[in-house]
Design a protein that fits this description.
The chain is mostly helical. It has one domain (12-64). It has helices spanning 12-26, 28-36, 41-64. The radius of gyration is 19 Å and the shape is flat. The termini are far apart. The relative contact order is 0.07.
Length: 65
């Protein structure tokens, strides 16, 4: 359970922003979306490989200048 302490005189909008930020950090929403549909293990592995190549290309570009 996510608890957001609200300070005296703090607006409700600010507390909601804190709550949303905590939800994003924990990854609850992303996990819920992933569980809505089944992804084959081969597709999941392929996506990981594509992401790894992309990150590696970014690192190579940063390294070269």
């Amino acid at each position: 359970m996510i608890i957001v302490p609200v300070k005296e005189g703090e607006s409700l909008e600010k507390a909601l922003k804190k709550l949303k930020r905590k939800f994003e950090k924990t990854g609850v929403v992303r996990e819920l979306r992933d569980r809505q549909k089944f992804t084959k293990p081969s597709v999941r592995k392929r996506d990981q490989m594509i992401k790894a190549r992309y990150v590696q290309s970014l690192r190579n570009a940063e390294e070269q200048g």
